[in-house]
Structure formats: C-alpha cells, structure tokens
Amino acid sequence: MWNGRIRGIHRLGGAVAPEGNQKKKRTILQLLTNYFYDVEALRDYLLQREMYKVHEKNRSFTWLEKQHGPYGAGAFFILKQGGAVKFRDKEWIRPDKYGHF
C-alpha cells in the first residue's frame, strides 16, 4: 500500500498475487515433458526413485530389534542417519562418506 511517501508492507496482511501472475520456475525436464513422452517417463522414474529412497530411509526397524535387541536397532538407526555411536569400552563407530560403517 502506498501511504504518501513510502510503500508500507505492514497493512498488506499477507496479500499474495494470484497464482496466474506469479512467475513459476520451470526446469528443463518440465519444459521438455510438454513435448516428449519419453522425458515424462524419465521424470516419473526419477520421482519414483526419490520416493523409494525416502521410503527406505523411513522404514521400520522392528525386525532388527527382534533379532539384535533395542540397543542394536537404535545404534543401526543412528548410524544410518549419519550419526555416531559408542559402546562401553569401545571406539566410536561412524559411517564413512558413503554411509558404510
């Protein structure tokens, strides 16, 4: 809003331009998807792969807890998230840059 000298932003109250007026960032894959079906298939594949990675990262470790107990399952979870664990009278265990430990 214009208040005479300066443009005030406090009285706008979160007003946002309509969606059609906002410039949307488009990737080259999104642009090519409009013209080529194989690019659309590639985008779908990449999306499925990312969803699989998230699913694998968030999967349940109940089978591991039954097999190795709660401390083993907890240590494995922490290591998979990039943390470090230390058992009594042992050295710290940390994953390497590839996530292996």
Could you characterize the architecture of this molecule?
- This protein has helices at residues 28-33, 37-57, 62-80.
- It is mainly α.
- Residues 6-14 have low confidence and may be disordered.
- It is 46% helix and 0% strand.
Shape category: elongated
What fraction of the residues are assigned to beta strands by DSSP? Answer: under 5%
Q: Whole-number average pLDDT?
A: 76
Q: Main sheet?
A: none
Specify the helix fraction band. Answer: 40-55%
Provide a concise account of the structure shown.
Helices cover 46% and strands 0% of the residues.
Features:
mainly alpha, 101 residues, single chain, elongated, 3 helices
Topology:
Elements: H1 28-33, H2 37-57, H3 62-80
